[in-house]
Write a structure and sequence with these properties.
alpha/beta, 7-stranded mixed beta sheet, 5 helices, 16% strand, transmembrane, methyltransferase
Amino acid sequence: MEVTKVDDGKRSIKGRGVGLALVGLTGGAAVVLSVVAAPFVAPALRKVCLPYVPATTTQVSNVLRALRGRSGTLVDLGSGDGRIVVAAAREGRFKCTGIELNPWLVWYSRWSAWRVGVSSNTTFTTADLWRTNLTPHSNIVVFGVEEMMPDLEAKLEKELSSDGCVVACRFPFPSWTPTATLGEDIDTVWLYQRPKNTVTQDNGRPAQENYCMSSDTDHNTQQ
């Protein structure tokens, strides 16, 4: 009887040990999952969610067509895996920056730029686009969501440089009038540029402006 009790006690202790080990492993896995997923979930907890949706080959092509004849600095807001920034840098006419909240995508973008030999002309930063001053950039690209476009329009009214050009993908700005539209369906891009002489309303806000594209690009193009 004593032997049986001892064996039962050993089995009980062993069972508790296995249970604790499983709890520890489960808890550890949950922590790891939380750490890995945090950069992906965090954007969704913000006021406006900008999800990672890779640009199609046609979208990239349309953006580059829209920027034909342009040069200088370029920033992609919500640059994702960096394909727009890398493609623009390969054109040799831009000093490119990608702004992205997800640090994993930032590191992947840096690797992509290094892999094709354009790392010297690209910078990828983990940052919030709403807290980023856009004035230094003469070319701005954004793959936005519909909910963010009014707020971004207001931000650009304050920060877009006098010769600045904006390429909006997937969704246009609600008040600005584009002078050119390229592509169709999800591949559509809209082109805008701040006019040199801005008319001001009585309330001090810029009036609805007639934004125009680079003179080297065909106006009102649909392809």
